[in-house]
Specification:
mainly alpha, about 65% helix
């Protein structure tokens, strides 16, 4: 039986197009939430390239070093304050094992993601310390994308876990920027900061190492 070459060629083209569409569909099926899930799992490692970039490009001045250090301290204070309310769950590797109760007190009454706000300020502060403007810009863009995706992933899990309670919380409290300035007279404080400081030992050591490394590497610069 003879086979028409044109017909065979058409069949091959259809098969190729179907395979291409299948691969394209698979690639495009990655949602923001799925990207966020992967980034959450890798969140301890995603800062490494930026840290290396900061260390190898650093040209700090007295002004950039001072401002960067102040930002780092502010970010870590926010983290300690947040951990004092949320506890050790902040260190979990699995977002599905959140606590039984939705934390809405302390910093969580101002923004929904105070720990990530603290992380963002710390990382930006280290970039500012470097004194290199484009490094600051790259840091802000990359970490904005990372935390946007991670928060979208976590919001889906929290809505599934807490339902209408979390949806109402989302409407009342902004994700990143407080809608009102905190009042020290009415601000909630934990009974103790000791567990939070203990939990933050690794972060404090990492921050201390980075600041020391930046100071040592900038020995011949303008600082």
């Amino acid at each position: 039986m003879s086979v028409d070459k044109n017909e065979t060629g058409s069949e091959n083209k259809v098969a190729h197009d179907l395979n291409h569409d299948e691969h394209s569909s698979s690639a495009s099926s990655w949602s923001v939430q799925e990207i966020g899930e992967k980034l959450f799992e890798l969140r301890d490692y995603t800062p490494i390239p930026l840290i290396a970039l900061v260390l190898f490009t650093a040209e700090p001045t007295v002004k950039s070093a001072t401002l960067g250090t102040l930002l780092v301290v502010l970010g870590e204070l926010i983290r300690v304050y947040s951990v004092a309310f949320i506890g050790s769950v902040s260190r979990t590797r699995n977002t599905s094992t959140t606590g039984a109760n939705l934390i809405k007190s302390g910093p969580f009454s101002l923004v929904r993601n105070p720990l990530y706000v603290g992380n963002f300020i710390i990382t930006t502060g280290l970039a500012v310390f470097s004194g290199v403007a484009w490094v600051v810009l790259v840091t802000i863009l990359l970490f904005s994308f990372q935390y946007y995706c991670i928060v979208k992933h976590e919001e889906g899990l929290l809505i599934g876990r807490f339902g209408p309670e979390y949806e109402a919380y989302m409407k009342e409290v902004p994700a990143w920027i407080p809608s009102r300035l905190p009042n020290l007279n009415t601000l909630e404080w934990p009974d103790t900061f000791s567990p939070a400081l203990k939990s933050e030992r690794r972060t404090l050591l990492a921050i201390g190492f980075m600041l020391l490394a930046l100071c040592l590497l900038s020995g011949g610069s303008k600082v």
